[in-house]
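HUMAN:
Just now I want nothing more than another pair of eyes on a protein record. I would be glad if you read both lines and explained how they fit together. I have put the entry right below:
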Amino acid sequence: MHLRAVLLSLAIMILALPGFGQTPLIADLSEHQIQITTGFIGTDVLLFGTVDPDSHVVVVVRGPEETTTVWRKGRLAGIWVNDRRVVFERVPSFYAVRSNAPLREIASVTTRRRHGMGAEFLRLRPEEGEDVSEGEAGIFRQALIRNKQRSGLFATGGDNIAFLGGQLFRTRLHFPANVPTGFYDIEVFMLQNGRVVHAQTTPLIVRKAGLGADVFFFAHNYSALYGIIAVALAVAAGVIAAFVFRKS
């Protein structure tokens, strides 16, 4: 990983020199695959690149989309229960934003809304057929964002892209232990005067590896057999425990 990062950094520095092409935005990751093994506690991925002088950089990370249900609690006979739900479709399972300065200072509202720079600009819509008013949908939408932020899956408060000189930039993207598996899009935007002038998308794969991956594959592809084995093991464990305690 470190050797790849060094080699790519050198290549980007050479391409950034005068006379080596006119590509205004070049970016890459230190690795394009995260493997989740037993004991995985999260990891960081280095993103780096080069842009034109006097430009700003915004990075948006989106995980695979999913359907998410948000519940509202209410009191029933003095007990808190789930009394209302709204189902949202096409919700990013993971979302993060990085920039070299506060977004409101470097990107117009139109730009942020168009490219989803900030959780408040994500197109989080209730599932088709949901009987919910726009005002109520907004309340549930905010609750969805708060829930994702509490679980570490929405990271939107970081303006920590650092510039090395006038053109080279770098930032570390953190992926927590509960990061979902799947294909991720890493969008890198170069901005000038509040508008996006160039953009690049780089893929990232998060997948399970090792024994955990084998168990996951078996459980999802042979669910009936997995259930039978799990029940058999539970029964066997109970019988062994009863035998041991009876002897003692």
